[in-house]
Amino acid sequence: MAELGFEDVRREEVRCDLRLAKYYQDTQFMVMEEQAAAQATDKERDRVKEAIREGVRESHGRARVTPKILFNVFLPAHDATAVALTNVFFHLSRHPIVYNRLRQAILALGPYSTWTFERLKACKYLQAVLNETFRLNPSIGQMNRVAVRDTVLPASGGNEGTSPVFVNKGTVLTTSFYALYRSPQIWGQDSDKWRPERWLQKGRDELVKVGHWTFLPFGGGPRICIGMQLALTEVAYAVGRLAQRYQRVDCRSGVGLCRSGKLRQ
Predict the structure, then answer these.
(1) Residue 161: left (phi > 0), alpha (psi -120 to 50), or beta?
(2) Which segments of 128-250 are extended strands (E)?
(3) CA distance 98 to 262
(4) Nearest to residue 39, comparing CAs of 88, 68, 81?
């Protein structure tokens, strides 16, 4: 029997990608637009629609822009959802106390048929679990940008990091989210530990407010990921439904555990 080689697998992946592109290209444009807009707030909805329409204008038609939008907006959101769910349950299976508290918070929401976007967002402990997972296991470890002209950054220079910094045209700037999210100066001395409680105000069922540029799981500014609400809602709903159904999640892998079965810190 012939062995399955790397090139065979790659060719099959390409064929699958082409079939997927053809399938989505046949999808009605207006349906796609409305589904995208339904995932966002009013302000974000307008931005999503305008981005799609701008792509159509640049492409002089809908057929050419549809795959571009899908592969750059909707499919990455689903991929981020899968990765985030894997990371969430990796940690939950190793923290039974956290899982029990999360489950109680989810059960308090009532039947899942009554859940809405607003109610999932209002479940503070669920949001704390998701935030802590995105912090410790960011979907994107770093981001690179190239300066298209000479410019000056308002801060980050000098011994205190508060002086301006001159940036030459062509300079590659790298932001390490992995390092940012594990900085003891920002997150405390236990910054390398998964602890959702760090996101909750002490003695209150409210989320801690962090600096806007301190936590950027989906980027920030005018180029923030427009699939953010789609991914977050999917993750929150999936975690909620599983926590509602199952009383516990067991870790059956030695990864992250000591020989005694306790969590390796």
Answers:
(1) left
(2) 142-146, 151-157, 163-167, 172-176
(3) 15
(4) 81
Q: What DSSP designation does 193 have?
A: S
Rounded CA gap, 134 and 250, in Å? 21
DSSP designation for 181: H
Cα separation, 237 vs 112, in Å, equals: 9
Query: How does DSSP assign 64-82, residue by residue?
Result: HHHHHHIIIIIHHHHHHHH
Q: Which of 186, 181, 244 is nearest to 216 (CA)?
A: 181
pLDDT in tens, 76-130: 555 778 888 999 999 999 999 999 999 999 999 999 889 988 999 999 999 999 9
Which residue's entry shows tokens 């045209």? 169
The DSSP call for residue 205 is S
Distance CA 224, CA 57 (A): 22
Q: Which two tokens stand for residue 3?
A: 């062995």
Angstrom distance (rounded) from CA 125 to CA 161? 34
Other C-beta atoms closer than 10 Å to the C-beta of 40 total: 20
* Stretch (H or E) spanning 133: helix 124-136
Per residue in 131-175, pLDDT tens?
Answer: 999 999 988 888 888 999 999 988 888 888 789 999 999 999 888
